[in-house]
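Quick check before the chapter quiz. The format below is the same one you will see on the exam, so make sure you can read both the input and the output lines.
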Amino acid sequence: MRKLVRLMIVLGPLLMAPGMLAAQTYDAMYVQGRVKELPEKKPGKLDLADATALQFTWDKGSWKVPFAQIRTVYVSLSRRSAMIEAFGLPGAAIGEAKPRKLLLSLNLTDESGTNRNCVFFIRGPATPEFWKTLESRTGRGIVFESEEARKAAQSAE
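Here is the expected output.
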């Protein structure tokens, strides 16, 4: 029994590491911004596994930004459908049927000192660990557009 416990203590972290790395990769899409290296509306993965940089990978390439260069982390929701504005209450019923998308906006300063921003659509739920890891590695508090955005970001709990 003692040998089994020792074996579990030694091998446990090694067996958990791949799962932990997978849990730090999220489906996302770059939707807009001032980062020429990123293809717009191209699905990919946001990866927090590297302790020094955030990486976005798509089918034909990847892009990294050191966490130290990220100045602001802003979470918002996509706008409501124009149906609400155009048709009032009936439009609101149609607009509410479609869930709003969670958007992650990063304001950063590149190596040359130029301010850049990029907006990612987070596909599916992002775990609370994602937000905690992003916050701790950037050293920046996450700014939520509204209480609704905060709840949407935490709905994966």
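If your answer matched, good. The beta strands are 25-33, 42-47, 53-58, 61-66, 70-77, 102-109, 115-122, 142-144.
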